């Protein structure tokens, strides 16, 4: 079985990233099984083992993603993001399948001054981050040679609610918008991440990619304020309508990391380039019909 004839499994296939992964696999001529939340409960170990069997690569896009909700339901979040991932990793270990698990910058402390390396110490500051770290630990433990943890952050795309879409929708409702300017990160287009995951999976099947942690975020950095302004500028809107404010103006149940800038050194080990610069991928994304339709 070659990397181009192997069948892949995508969990969380109805989500924003899951849909883009399926589109990229189809474009690459790779056959894939798409399982939505209704099709597979990853907290059911028996169902997970049956689903994984017969595949060569699993791309896990299934997750509890309600960051604020996890603060009052950490056990439920950890059941999905921790136990569910352990089930997938155990099934992959039992069947010789490679696992590409999508994780998050929230496993890090968010108080650095320089980009986080892939081997930086983990220290989540909220329940969601803790739940995702449990999943990462399971992949490391059970799949030391065939488990790939791809951390992403500030994800936006065509197939789900996200910050960029919200900003464009609000342009038709408000003259000005106050946006946080003291959180730093790397806005990442889900379709670009899907391409990277596809490339990584192929490299893994070909024996070219070492297992472990990779950072699947755009290069460069900005703030939410900077992202909103650039989204407006590229959409033909006046960026001056976006005004800076601080995190104190938008208190949320879950603490957000102030610094979510990740380093990308490990991609070279897999023979792959990091994701593009954030402005470049944003420009490409905003030309997609779903975003063009949101312009006032």
UniProtKB/TrEMBL annotation:
Signal sequence segment: none
Domain RmlD-like substrate binding: 8-288
Keywords: NADP, Oxidoreductase
EC number from the UniProt entry: 1.1.1.133
Entries under InterPro entries matching the protein: dTDP_dehydrorham_reduct, NAD(P)-bd_dom_sf, RmlD-like-bd
GO cellular component, one term: cytosol
Superkingdom classification of source: Bacteria
Molecular-function annotations in GO: dTDP-4-dehydrorhamnose reductase activity
General function of this protein: Catalyzes the reduction of dTDP-6-deoxy-L-lyxo-4-hexulose to yield dTDP-L-rhamnose.
Name of this protein: dTDP-4-dehydrorhamnose reductase
Protein's organism: Kitasatospora sp. CMC57
Lineage per the UniProt record: Bacteria, Bacillati, Actinomycetota, Actinomycetes, Kitasatosporales
UniProt gene name: rfbD
